[in-house]
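Title: Comparing notes on inverse folding

I've been comparing how different people in this forum approach sequence design from structure. To keep things fair, I'm posting one structure and asking everyone to reply with a full sequence. Here's the target:
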């Protein structure tokens, strides 16, 4: 059933009773108060008696041979327990990687990017470890740099990985290309002949940092059995485990991982940071080792969003129907592959956007360069494409003299649309409706900086508290955008999640415990799991077990998949627990009451209840001293890899959609922008926790705003060094930069998903960026084709 709201529902019924904290209610987060009061224990807060501190020495150049490493002076520093280089690693396996192993744990023979780990120190105090690391002498012989497509694919190009042997090499035109994905459907060249209007554009998307608030950290504790216990902030415990154990030379069961408090992630914790080096030091020294990056080091310690160059061509008839699309997308993956291949697949398969275009010719490639490594970040390749195709929609609408929203609605996809990959969209796709909703919302009043008593509130002006203007020469603009994002892992990946659910009687009351390996990174999964258990098992008391590797994998907290996947596995396990409870009840009480043999029995309010609401027994009486426990996996429907020549294939599980309207005010003399409002409409399938849904949409919207007007990692093109690795120079939106973000969501259930849910958190990150840029174009009349927009782009200086 469709439902729309701009507020939070307060009462949602489940069957014959109102669920207390069940599906559909805005239950509060168990970690919320602790986090806002500063009492929550993050991974950087962990402590162990007699622990050492680890410190990494990182490369000062981007591409060089390592001539020598001298650790002698570092070893003489009092308090130093170990100094290790590549040769000191304990096992034959010394490389790791998410999709294939191309990353050395410590640099081997050469360094490939600025800030690459070269050596690691363990000492009894963090300052001692830092001083010792500074005494390690490394002699480099610098090599030519590969920094862009031209230098990467030239006939005489230096190879970033000269000994590269991987599963992508057979279909790419050059060893410096990680992956290439074409998508070809119909005949774009023939269709272009039918076009009465054609527009082209070249777009540049900057490198964005995840900018999570808690830098990388963890604690490794050596165990008596020769293994290690690792407490770490990550996004995917089991993926880390498969990369860590071979480097330690240990079986996976001797590397026991527990999720520590995570201070945000957004993709930046999918890759390994300190997860290998801390256990290596702990096993070498026989002591617990803690590692905590500072903010400067964090900029080098995780992957970033791929910067991109995109070239697009669109055609349309005079009536506004799209005829064809051609595009080429070049993503800079940096020195190591990480998830670049998958990002390329996403960018290519979603390059058309949420529109019906029968004839397309798409190519996306990902490069190896000596720039910082890039990988997963919220939006995962679809963000870069959305910025380009939405600019193209505005260009076409302007050339045709059409309203930009009505032009989009005319070409909007819907349920049943065939994607450029040949996949049919078999769930609701309300693109036109989302656009209508944001357009029909009343605009915010003008001159909001004027207070009721005639004063000027500079906080509401471009430039804010810098007090650069009092409203002179400010122009307003309005812009629209809509995006499409896949949900879940794609292209044939065996995506599953596991949940262990236990139901038992404590103090005369039936209580449940849910145990998964899901990484709670701020998305609110711990709340969702409790809501599902309360609804399916009819209990009020639910405990969420700490996430660890003592239960099966839950996959990564990414791709908008956790409510769909781990929520699905919790639901599945709860259903199996319920059936076991009913089996016990039938054995105990079935002979005395024929209703036990009937269908439709459920658990509600701690009781076994028939469809008509008749209470058969209390769950506590059924179980008595027994406990029922189930650990089960849950998988979504299968996907398949895209064909490497045509790009055809049912590659994605589900699609999510969001639309934005941005209202901005621009001081054209100073080049300052104030985003006044970013209204969003999104289909969420089912709002399991409405309060969390709104928070996710507002958070994703704000990250998209950041990359539109302020966020970019600056890499010097001559040295490939990062120039702004701090929050002093890398700017992210603060509360003063964040506009009003009204949210209007639809609940159009996907029949293939648990409870009909859609992934939520990523889609708003796509469309908020091009909406803001479109509004700035509307205000200034400038053809802005890059992110982020800087003051000099608006003033011509």
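Reply #1:
Here's my take.
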């Amino acid at each position: 059933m469709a439902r729309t709201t701009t507020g939070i529902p307060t009462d949602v019924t489940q069957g014959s009773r109102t669920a207390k904290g069940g599906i559909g209610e805005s239950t509060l987060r168990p970690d919320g108060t602790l986090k806002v009061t500063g009492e929550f224990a993050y991974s950087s807060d962990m402590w162990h008696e007699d622990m050492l501190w680890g410190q990494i020495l990182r490369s000062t150049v981007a591409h060089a041979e390592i001539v020598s490493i001298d650790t002698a002076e570092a070893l003489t520093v009092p308090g130093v327990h170990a100094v290790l280089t590549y040769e000191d690693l304990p096992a034959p396996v010394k490389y790791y990687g998410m999709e294939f192993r191309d990353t050395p744990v410590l640099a081997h023979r050469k360094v490939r990017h600025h800030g690459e780990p070269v050596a690691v120190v363990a000492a009894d105090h963090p300052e001692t470890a830092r001083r010792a690391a500074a005494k390690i002498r490394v002699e480099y012989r610098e090599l030519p740099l590969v920094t862009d497509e031209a230098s990467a694919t030239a006939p005489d190009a230096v190879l970033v990985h000269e000994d590269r042997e991987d599963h992508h090499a057979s279909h790419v035109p050059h060893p410096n290309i990680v992956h290439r994905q074409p998508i070809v459907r119909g005949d774009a060249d023939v269709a272009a002949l039918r076009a009465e209007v054609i527009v082209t554009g070249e777009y540049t998307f900057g490198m964005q940092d995840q900018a999570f608030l808690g830098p990388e950290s963890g604690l490794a504790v050596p165990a008596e059995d020769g293994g290690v216990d690792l407490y770490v902030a990550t996004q995917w415990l089991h993926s880390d485990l498969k990369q860590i154990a071979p480097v330690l030379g240990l079986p996976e069961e001797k590397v026991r991982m527990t999720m520590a408090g995570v201070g945000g992630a957004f993709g930046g914790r999918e890759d390994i940071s300190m997860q290998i080096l801390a256990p290596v030091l702990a096993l070498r020294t026989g002591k617990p080792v803690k590692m905590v990056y500072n903010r400067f080091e964090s900029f080098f310690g995780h992957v970033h969003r791929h910067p991109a160059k995109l070239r697009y061509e669109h055609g349309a008839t005079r009536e506004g129907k799209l005829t064809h699309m051609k595009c080429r997308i070049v993503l800079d993956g940096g020195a190591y592959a990480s998830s670049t291949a998958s990002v390329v697949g996403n960018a290519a398969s979603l390059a058309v956007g949420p529109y019906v275009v029968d004839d397309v010719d798409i190519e996306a490639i990902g490069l190896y360069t000596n720039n910082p490594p890039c990988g997963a970040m919220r939006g995962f390749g679809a963000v870069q494409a959305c910025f380009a195709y939405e600019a193209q929609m505005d260009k076409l609408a302007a050339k045709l003299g059409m309203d930009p929203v009505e032009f989009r609605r005319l070409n909007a996809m819907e349920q049943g649309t065939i994607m450029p990959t040949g996949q049919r969209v078999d769930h609701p796709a309300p693109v036109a409706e989302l656009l209508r909703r944001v357009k029909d919302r009343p605009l915010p009043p003008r001159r909001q900086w004027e207070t009721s008593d005639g004063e000027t509130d500079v906080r509401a002006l471009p430039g804010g508290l810098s007090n650069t203007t009092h409203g002179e020469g400010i122009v307003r603009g309005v812009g629209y955008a809509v995006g499409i994002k896949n949900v879940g892992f794609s292209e044939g990946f065996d995506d599953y999640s596991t949940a262990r659910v236990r139901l038992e009687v404590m103090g005369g009351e039936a209580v449940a415990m849910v145990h998964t390996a899901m990484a709670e990174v701020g998305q609110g999964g711990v709340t969702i799991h409790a809501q599902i258990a309360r609804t399916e098992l009819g209990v009020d008391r639910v405990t969420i077990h700490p996430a660890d590797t003592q239960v099966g994998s839950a996959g990564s907290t990414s791709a908008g998949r956790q409510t769909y996947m781990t929520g699905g596995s919790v639901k599945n396990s709860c259903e199996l627990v319920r059936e076991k409870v009913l089996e016990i009840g039938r054995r105990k009480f079935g002979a005395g009451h024929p209703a036990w043999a009937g269908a439709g029995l459920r658990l509600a309010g701690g009781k076994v209840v028939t469809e008509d609401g008749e209470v058969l027994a209390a769950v506590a009486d059924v179980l008595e001293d027994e406990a029922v426990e189930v650990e089960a996996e849950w998988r979504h429907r299968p996907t398949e890899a895209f064909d490497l020549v045509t790009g055809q294939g049912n590659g994605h599980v589900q699609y999510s959609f969001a639309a934005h309207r941005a209202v901005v005010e621009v001081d054209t003399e100073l080049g300052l922008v104030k985003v006044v409002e970013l209204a969003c409409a999104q289909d969420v399938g089912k709002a399991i926790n409405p309060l969390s849904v709104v928070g996710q949409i507002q958070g994703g919207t704000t990250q998209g705003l950041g990359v539109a007007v302020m966020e970019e990692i600056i890499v010097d093109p001559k040295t490939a060094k990062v120039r702004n690795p701090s929050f002093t120079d890398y700017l992210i939106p603060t509360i003063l930069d964040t506009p009003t973000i009204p949210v209007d969501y639809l609940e159009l259930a996907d029949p293939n998903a648990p409870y009909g849910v859609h992934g939520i958190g990523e889609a708003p990150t796509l469309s908020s960026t091009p909406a803001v840029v479109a509004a700035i174009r509307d205000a200034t009349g400038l053809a802005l084709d890059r992110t982020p927009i800087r003051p000099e782009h608006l003033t011509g200086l």
